[in-house]
């Protein structure tokens, strides 16, 4: 490739064209711009005038320069300039592009893919075959050497995996390598146990080049809960200078939206590969955390999912009467407290207070009866996912709870009295436990021999009993029964919570049983023994990029395997759900150390920052186009076509050439909306619905203006100028009152507008519908407006209506009225119907009416016309005739005032019914 | 008998060009509130002037019996003397008048014809006689004359690049109106005006110009051509000519103004970009009064 000033040219002979530039200069210089022909009658006056100078004969030098540069740019562009031309890499034969494909790769995966693409493109140019292999996703059989282009096309489908390949697999794969090839290894920057062996195997085949990103690798170990604090340790692979990282905790907020719950800085000291962080969070917040993350690092290693280990359950313990005389060891809850204290937050208090705190578990030790309301509340709490654990005891045994019919808070019916085995007064030996069945949540727990049960309450045989038993004695009598209720469950231990009836609370089995029931949390990483016999299904999996995804249909994992699993194809890192518990399998476990790669000196290692070839052809051609556009503008300007007549079109064309890019639409928040909000909320404003009929809208506005003025003059309501409201676009919540004149041809509002109207009506807005036809029609469907009103109001959420009753509060909110005329004086005005049971208060002329504002008032009296005033304050329409007419207008105004008072003060006047009673009570 | 169909086709063809010009002109003329311009003395006319006592020699039929019945003396009802003036209109129909600088503006010729027609309507309603000079249409009064005027004005015929006022056929002591752009040879105008002044004719000169002719918004290398192409001027820098062109235009206007002053005529320069009403008002005032 021909190189000039660091720029290579693919077609250098085209540069010879540059020689022609001086000739072009001379040619262009000689040709003046073409004249414009203009028809102009004034030419008669021009005859005989001569030009002062002849300079315009020649094209100005700067225009020449623009044109010459444009031509030069075209020539250079077609000569194929390339920035940073790459010298061909020496090499022949096949090329293996090897990627580690681990989670550590994910932090700059896009750049790795770019680098691999560059390597493949290079190979393609040299006509070499290539193979692309990700070590976490190795192809079966021989290395798939193919044309490099086909690999470049498949590159986007290669993904890193959130685990690293195991040593055995890599060793086996390295064994199987055959033939000679050059290797281009994109390393993830972490030392893996197999790396040295694989390097040796590859070097046998050919040259090895390594590329490594200088970006730091961060990891986050699982969070531990110690001494009331969450402890986290962050890791980094390459030690060096002191560094700072930010760890964030994420989880669902009370609204169910995932957000950042906490953040803290973690500081790496110089030469330290590990940094500790202690977070002290309130339990409510702590229990919400679902994962920790090193901020700004897209890698599974920088994410640590949390599981039950971090979650401290809130357990409420309730026992029967506190027997202070008894020894502490006989206390019904002593063993429970001992078992739960290290792993759960215990709550005590009255049942009412406890239910308010919404604990995870309520343990009731030997409590027979709760009050009915408490029982209801507990039932609701269980159905919402609570776990109610009950222990039997003498009180339960002697009560008749769940005797005849199953108590909702008991899993089974009980037989009277219970039984005692192996005591002084009974036959038989104390009973041991039977091994747990597979359906039981305790399946897999070893049953200690020494556990003996001497007394228990007995379950009544029932059809459902078998499926509710989760633990039983060796003779088959149920020991623990469970019933699912809604999302929660009720569990009954048929023995006491202390050692009175059995030795179960003394054994380690008791603690594990509590753990399996998710009453207590698992303290640390569970052992295989703990998880024996359980099956765990992936609930959420972690991608290599640190993203938490739905697990989909992944097979379950046996608990034993999970306890010792490291992330791999069989056990992808993520959250595994058992029956009631969840275990997180993280990429980085508590013991993982990150260490950087150590390549032998003979291996060339490059960073990812490689100067890439950049073809400059496009840039040069663009520059040429820009210059030519500038030339067009300049020529037009010189020829007087930019300033003269009909310059508009020329300028528009030129601008279109230059600008090219359309202006981005200014789809910002509409300031008009804000303006309306301000206008409507800074002062009280009456509003009318815009019907689209200009005359109706004008009258409505004038009417409300007149009413506003009347209100201003007579009452303490001082409204500003009325506003017309477009139902489709405007927010209605600002307006206490809407006047809606009906015209037969107004459009039906959209569904969204109706939704907002209904919301408006429900939240206390009022609409005055006015069909304006009371002069020709009685209220009803007999007029076009009436039919239109029916159409308009059908989707509205309007309560039952009645003609305004004599004692309606509208008749007395400000003025005492019985008629509600507008321009017409019909008596058909409808409001929300009073409830049928409204009764007349003792000694009052009014009924005790419904205690809210009627959402609609419907009539046809054309009130707006009666109220309407023009800009100079004159009445716009005549009402009636003579004095009677003016009286009618006055009453119309009074109706408006009453209506507004009703809107703004609600049923305040109606409530005055109660004044005598109040006075009576006050002893006046 | 002529064929009714032929007659109708001919009538429609004749009436075709009339309505737009006539309607526009009527419309424009309505904006001017008309006042009869009587002679302020008794004479032949329609309007009541005064009652005077009957004198010997008055014909008996001239006595106004209704007035006389209210008193003992006899009265004669006198009417105001209303003399009809002849106004001759010359509208330049040269090709230079067909220029308009933009689509929104009417051409100078259209505006000139509209103004001439409107003033003719006003004058004829005022009882004057209006005719066209140079078109062979002698001054007459009446609505029919309006139709004739409209027909004559709308008649497009082959015309030279620039026009010269016609002063032939003017009756002494009548009045005249010359409408043109007066951009070409001033000598013809001078000659016509002098000739008219010699006969005691007074009148008005209305110069109609396009806004572009006032502004000269040109630049760069340009070849200017007259509308007919008979005149041609090439310049390399039109912008440099602007000042000198405007100076020449001002000189032309000043020349016309001084010519009018010496001959007792009135001069007004109207631009097609402006409202026609202003020009019409000026015209009406200039032609209505005796000077």
UniProtKB/TrEMBL annotation, chain A:
| Classification via Gene3D superfamilies | 3.40.50.880, Domain of unknown function DUF4159
Its domain of life? Bacteria
Residue ranges of every copy of the DUF4159 domain listed in the record: 686-904
Pfam families associated with the record: BatA (PF07584), DUF4159 (PF13709)
Record bears the keyword Membrane: yes
Q: Does the keyword Membrane apply?
A: yes
* Membrane-spanning ranges: 6-28, 61-83
Q: Which UniProt keywords apply?
A: Membrane, Transmembrane, Transmembrane helix
- Residues forming the Aerotolerance regulator N-terminal domain are 7-81
Record-linked PANTHER family:
BLL2463 PROTEIN (PTHR37464:SF1)
In its UniProt entry, what is this protein called?
N-terminal double-transmembrane domain-containing protein
TrEMBL record, chain B:
List the InterPro entries: DUF58 (IPR002881)
Pfam families assigned to the protein according to its UniProt record, in alphabetical order:
DUF58
Q: Taking every annotated instance into account, which residue ranges of this chain make up the domain DUF58?
A: 50-253
- Official protein name in the record: DUF58 domain-containing protein
**Species the sequence originates in:** Tranquillimonas alkanivorans
């Amino acid at each position: 490739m021909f190189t000039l000033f660091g720029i290579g040219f693919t077609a250098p002979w085209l540069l010879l064209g540059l020689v022609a530039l001086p000739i072009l200069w001379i040619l262009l210089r000689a040709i003046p711009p073409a004249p414009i022909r203009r028809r102009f009658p004034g030419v008669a006056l021009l005859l005989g005038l001569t030009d002062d100078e002849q300079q315009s004969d020649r094209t100005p030098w700067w225009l020449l320069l623009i044109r010459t540069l444009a031509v030069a740019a075209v020539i250079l562009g077609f000569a194929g300039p390339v920035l940073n031309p790459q010298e061909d890499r020496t090499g022949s034969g096949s090329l293996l592009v090897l990627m580690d494909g681990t989670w550590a790769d994910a932090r700059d995966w896009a750049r790795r893919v770019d680098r691999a693409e560059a390597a493949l493109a290079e190979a393609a140019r040299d006509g070499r075959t290539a193979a692309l292999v990700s070590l976490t996703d190795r192809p079966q059989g021989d290395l798939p050497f193919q044309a490099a282009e086909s690999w470049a096309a498949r590159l986007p489908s290669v993904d890193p995996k959130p685990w690293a390949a195991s040593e055995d697999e890599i060793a086996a794969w390295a064994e199987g390598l055959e033939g000679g090839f050059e290797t281009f290894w994109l390393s993830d920057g972490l030392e893996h146990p197999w790396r040295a062996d694989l390097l040796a195997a590859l070097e046998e085949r050919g040259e090895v080049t390594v590329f490594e990103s200088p970006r730091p690798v961060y990891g986050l170990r699982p969070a531990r809960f110690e001494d009331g604090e969450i402890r986290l340790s962050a890791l980094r692979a390459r030690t060096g200078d002191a560094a700072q990282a930010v760890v964030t905790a994420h989880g669902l907020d009370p609204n169910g939206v995932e957000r950042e719950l906490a953040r803290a800085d973690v500081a790496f000291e110089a030469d330290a590969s590990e940094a500790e962080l202690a977070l002290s969070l309130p339990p409510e917040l702590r229990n919400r955390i679902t994962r920790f993350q090193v901020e700004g690092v897209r890698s599974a290693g920088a994410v640590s999912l949390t599981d039950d280990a971090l979650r401290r359950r809130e357990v409420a313990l309730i026992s029967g009467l506190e027997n202070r005389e008894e020894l502490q060891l006989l206390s019904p809850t002593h063993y429970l407290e001992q078992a739960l204290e290290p792993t759960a937050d215990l709550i005590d208090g009255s049942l009412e207070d406890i239910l308010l705190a919404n604990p995870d578990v309520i343990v009731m030790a030997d409590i027979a009866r709760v009050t009915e309301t408490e029982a209801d509340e507990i039932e609701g709490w269980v159905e919402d996912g609570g776990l109610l654990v009950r222990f039997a005891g003498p009180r339960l045994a002697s009560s008749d709870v769940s005797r005849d019919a199953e108590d909702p808070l008991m899993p089974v019916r009980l037989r009277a009295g219970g039984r005692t085995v192996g005591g002084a007064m009974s036959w038989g030996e104390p009973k041991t436990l039977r091994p747990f069945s597979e359906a039981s949540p305790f399946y897999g727990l070893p049953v200690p021999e020494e556990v003996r049960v001497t007394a228990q309450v007995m379950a009544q045989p029932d059809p459902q009993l078998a499926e509710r038993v989760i633990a039983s004695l060796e003779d088959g009598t149920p020991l623990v029964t469970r019933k699912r209720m809604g999302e929660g469950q009720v569990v009954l231990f048929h023995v006491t919570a202390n050692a009175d009836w059995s030795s179960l609370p003394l054994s380690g089995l008791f603690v594990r049983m509590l753990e399996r029931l998710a009453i207590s949390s698992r303290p640390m990483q569970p052992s295989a023994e703990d998880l024996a016999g359980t099956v765990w299904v992936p609930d959420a999996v972690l991608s290599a990029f640190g993203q938490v995804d739905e697990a989909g249909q992944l097979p379950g994992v046996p608990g034993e395997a999970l306890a010792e699993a490291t992330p791999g194809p069989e056990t992808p890192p993520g959250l595994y759900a058992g029956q009631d518990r969840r275990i997180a399998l993280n990429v980085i476990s508590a013991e993982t150390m990150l260490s950087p790669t150590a390549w032998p000196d003979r291996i060339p290692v490059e960073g990812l920052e490689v100067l890439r070839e950049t073809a400059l052809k496009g840039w040069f051609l663009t520059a040429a186009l820009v210059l030519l556009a500038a030339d067009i503008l300049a020529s037009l300007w010189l020829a007087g076509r930019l300033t003269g007549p009909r310059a508009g079109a020329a300028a528009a064309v030129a601008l279109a050439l230059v600008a090219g890019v359309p202006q981005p639409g200014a789809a910002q928040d509409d300031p008009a909306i804000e303006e309306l909000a301000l206008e409507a909320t800074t002062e009280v404003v009456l509003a009318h619905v815009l019907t689209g009929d200009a005359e109706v809208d004008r009258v409505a506005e004038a009417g409300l203006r007149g009413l506003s003025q009347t209100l201003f003059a007579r009452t303490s309501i001082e409204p500003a100028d009325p506003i017309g409201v477009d139902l489709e676009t405007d927010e209605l919540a600002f307006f206490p009152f809407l006047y809606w004149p009906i015209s037969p041809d107004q459009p039906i509002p959209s569904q969204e507008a109706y939704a907002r109207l209904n919301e408006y009506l429900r939240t206390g807005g009022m609409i005055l519908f006015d069909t304006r036809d009371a002069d020709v029609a009685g209220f009803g469907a007999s007029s076009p407006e009436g039919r239109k009103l029916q159409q308009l109001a059908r989707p509205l959420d309007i309560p039952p209506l009645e003609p305004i009753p004599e004692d309606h509060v509208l008749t007395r909110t400000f003025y005492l009225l019985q008629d509600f005329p507008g321009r017409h004086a019909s008596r058909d005005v409808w409001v929300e119907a009073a409830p049928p049971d409204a009764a007349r208060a003792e000694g009052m002329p009014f009924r005790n009416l419904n205690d809210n504002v009627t959402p609609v008032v419907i009539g046809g009296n054309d009130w707006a016309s009666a109220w309407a005033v023009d800009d100079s304050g004159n009445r716009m329409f005549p009402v009636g005739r003579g004095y009677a007419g003016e009286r009618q207008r006055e009453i119309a105004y009074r109706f408006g005032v009453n209506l507004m008072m009703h809107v703004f003060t609600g049923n305040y006047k109606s409530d005055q019914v109660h004044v005598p009673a109040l006075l009576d009570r006050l002893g006046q | 008998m002529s064929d009714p169909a032929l007659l109708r086709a001919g009538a429609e063809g004749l009436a075709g060009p009339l309505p737009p010009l006539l309607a526009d002109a009527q419309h424009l003329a309505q904006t001017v509130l008309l006042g009869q311009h009587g002679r302020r003395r008794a004479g032949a006319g329609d309007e009541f002037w005064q009652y005077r006592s009957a004198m010997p020699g008055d014909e008996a039929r001239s006595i106004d019996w209704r007035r006389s019945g209210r008193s003992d003396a006899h009265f004669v009802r006198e009417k105001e003397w209303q003399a009809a003036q002849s106004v001759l209109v010359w509208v330049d129909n040269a090709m230079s008048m067909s220029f308009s600088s933009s689509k929104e503006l009417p051409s100078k010729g259209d505006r000139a014809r509209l103004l001439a027609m409107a003033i003719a309507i006003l004058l004829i309603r005022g009882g004057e006689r209006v005719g066209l000079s140079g078109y062979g249409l002698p001054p007459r009064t009446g609505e029919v004359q309006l139709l004739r005027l409209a027909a004559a004005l709308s008649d497009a015929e082959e015309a030279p690049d620039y026009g010269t006022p016609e002063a032939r056929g003017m009756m002494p002591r009548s009045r005249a109106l010359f409408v043109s752009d007066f951009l070409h040879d001033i000598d013809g105008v001078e000659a016509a005006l002098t000739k008219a002044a010699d006969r005691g004719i007074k009148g008005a000169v209305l110069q109609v110009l396009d806004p572009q002719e006032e502004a000269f918004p040109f630049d760069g290398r340009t070849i200017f051509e007259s509308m007919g192409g008979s005149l041609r001027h090439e310049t390399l820098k039109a912008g440099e000519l602007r000042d000198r062109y405007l100076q020449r235009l001002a000189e032309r206007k000043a020349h016309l103004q001084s010519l009018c002053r010496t001959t007792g005529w009135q001069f007004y320069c109207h631009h097609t970009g402006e409202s026609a009403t202003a020009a019409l008002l000026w015209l009406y005032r200039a032609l209505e009064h005796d000077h």
